[in-house]
Amino acid sequence: MYLIELILTSECSHVKFSNLATKRLKQCRTPLGKKISLNNSISIVPELIYPVSSIQQQLSSMFKRPGFEELLRHWTRHSIIDNVLSDIYDGQIWKNLKESSEQGSNNFFRPDKADAHLGLMMNLDWFQPYEGTIYSTGPDEVKLHKVNHYLSPIITELESLWEGVNLNRTNECPNGKDI
Q1: pLDDT for 20-65, tens place per residue?
Q2: In the chain, which end has fewer C-beta atoms inside a 10 angstrom radius, N or C?
Q3: Any idea what DSSP says for residue 102?
Q4: Residue 65 near residue 171 (C-beta atoms within 8 A)
Q5: Is the model's pTM score more than 0.90?
């Protein structure tokens, strides 16, 4: 979420494609807050508020549940039938995603890391991958400048998780675990 000082400026300073030198840089400038009169003074309130529990907080809570880590290892006992896609474990990303781009890097998803290397997925109810096909009965698609603000802290946290984090305690590891 935005820091208080960003809200006080009342406009977004995000620059779309800021790493491209060929484009003229232009700030988003979407209003972040509005001034209201409150108790005979002017206050700035955010335009958009959304509650969020960090991914790391949610993972920490799940890892404390009895049996959760065992469920993460379940896929290592998965039956494989050649040329049949019956689960996410049969897909190419699951089989070929590497830990890094270095030559000879280990696969990210492998049995010895089944309860530490996690694949996370995010669903957006309004996402319409094909024109003319309706996959959602929800409201119209969210405007790009609004969804980017929503996704930005999530992407930042996912980048941190990719580097690895330590959970202080799990059900199976009372002294902590790196994931």
Answers
A1: 665 667 778 788 888 888 888 888 888 777 666 889 999 999 999 9
A2: N
A3: S
A4: yes
A5: no
